[in-house]
């Protein structure tokens, strides 16, 4: 047994309001430069919808992820080495710019400098790729709030699959419509197909925390990783000719800070923590014959950090004691393994994803309340789960390769928690039969409620810091911005290209950054180096906020 540590994330979809704050702050921190105009390391999709890039889940077309060959062994969907070598110079199975979108700005100069006249000037959209006039026809969340779903909803690959099995399950009439938000980042998989697809070996998985990064010095821009990733979370920078991807904000997590998307999330729906897993069994788990068994196979990989044998094996493998302790307090382990309410996204891709989701329950509660029912009553909730506006079959295709019983059990657990806590809140004697009906005790159900509803900052983010002796080894070797002269490859600053003096990803050394994040005293002068990646809320640098109006404090 080879025990390794993996940083992971859980998102509670019941809390996502689709505000896109996570997307905007991620883009501000990581992709606000030339060549990455269309790149969203974090994006929020409205489901049902085609996603970003368009129909990325259609692996019959894009051939991402893994499959089993005739001998039952894992192989990339793109085929063996010989087949991939034939397509190394021209791969026809990669999303084109139209599948993402042609990024644009507006002709603000015409708007602001047009001479006085009878007609109001128009700021036409201009392509950021060609500089010519363009027509805006697609974007990163074109399905936003079901916009156009009545006409385009059938193009959602998950809708297609569910409809093939039952035409009546998903319709788009107003009275039956449903929607929820699905935030997505790189899955930082245990069995990453992007890494296996890279001809130059530029993509690697950090042994200390499992974060998957791109070594920019080794990347040759073959773009095989774009094809190999079934989630399409690797992007090609047309300016640098390199592949880039979500870095899990590793300069932040190394000093114990959450990722930018988690830190700025309005709904507080993201949880960060550690898994301990058996690296020797990853390949066997990913080769589980029945795709619907992959969820359980992935759960079996996650080891109990409270087990003395697991802890001893982790120490023998070089996992520090404070990391083992963090794994014992990990909220992602609790939600995924202890309470079994978090599910992986598309386990059938066989990449063993490490970003998990608590499926949404709130639409059924809203519907029951609108119909005059007691929406928090256990019997009412349990009976309505099978008639959700969000069909269980749709959620199952996203999170369990189609196994509806697993999703139903998760929704029943969430419904039981709501029903039980309603009695507690109203001062009534809670019914112990409620948690027992979903296999939990009263204490564990309350602990689940606390974690999902009122968990404090240090309960949602249990992130062990890197050790000082590792600091030099962890410096920016895999950073997607480590090219030529730093971010953007030319004069740049914390607010985009040419916005100030050059600011690398980590302005300070490891020790200096750690001191600034943990010190009781505010930092000194932050002028000229304020960005969302390194700013932790301490101090108020000039220019960070608009100046107060006259007379305001």
From TrEMBL:
Gene3D superfamilies: 3.30.70.20, nitrate reductase domain like
Signal peptide: none
Key words of the record: 4Fe-4S, Electron transport, Iron, Iron-sulfur, Metal-binding, Repeat, Transport
Region entry Disordered, spans: 514-553
GO terms for cellular component: cell envelope; membrane; nitrate reductase complex
Entries under SUPFAM superfamilies matching the protein: 4Fe-4S ferredoxins (SSF54862)
GO biological process: anaerobic respiration; nitrate metabolic process
UniProt key word Transport: yes
One GO MF term attached to the UniProt entry: nitrate reductase activity
Residue ranges of the TM segments: none
Localization: Cell envelope
Domain of life: Bacteria
Positions of the 4Fe-4S ferredoxin-type domain: 7-36, 177-208, 210-239
Cofactor(s) this protein cannot do without: [4Fe-4S] cluster; [3Fe-4S] cluster
Listed InterPro entries: 4Fe4S_Fe-S-bd, Nitr_red_bet_C, Nitr_red_bet_C_sf, NO3_Rdtase_bsu
Record flagged with keyword Repeat: yes
Pro residues composition bias: residue spans: 544-553
Name of this chain's protein: Nitrate reductase subunit beta
Species the sequence originates in: Jiangella anatolica
Species classification: Bacteria, Bacillati, Actinomycetota, Actinomycetes, Jiangellales
